[in-house]
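Intended use. Records like the one below are meant for learning the mapping from a protein sequence to its folded structure. Do not use them to infer anything beyond what is encoded.
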Amino acid sequence: MKKNSHKLSDAEKKQLDEAMAPLIEWEMEQDKKRVASMLIVKNNVSDDLYNDIIEYIEDCDYTTDFEITSVTPDKETEQEGEGDFMKKIWVDQYCNGGYSGDDFAGWIHIKINKTEYLKFHYSM
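Structure written out for the chain above:
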């Protein structure tokens, strides 16, 4: 059986490139924000805590809008859990819909020094 394939014409490739350009630009900007923020985090925490933060971020699925902020998160969003790492995390979560109603998103703050937090948005 012969596989049916469709090759894009030059006009279709151009149209696709133009349509994707804003998304690619936005993703590049998000990556720059993440890299810059994580460099500040690395310079403010121990290697072990930095590795815990990286692992935590990876578990958050899709993350964006990284920044360092001195705005203190709301006390009621403080996480409960074992260990010192969990005492440094605040999560402001909301239901993000999804077809099953169990998709979540929100803002996370992780304390990196006495006055600053790593802040980012996540969705799962």
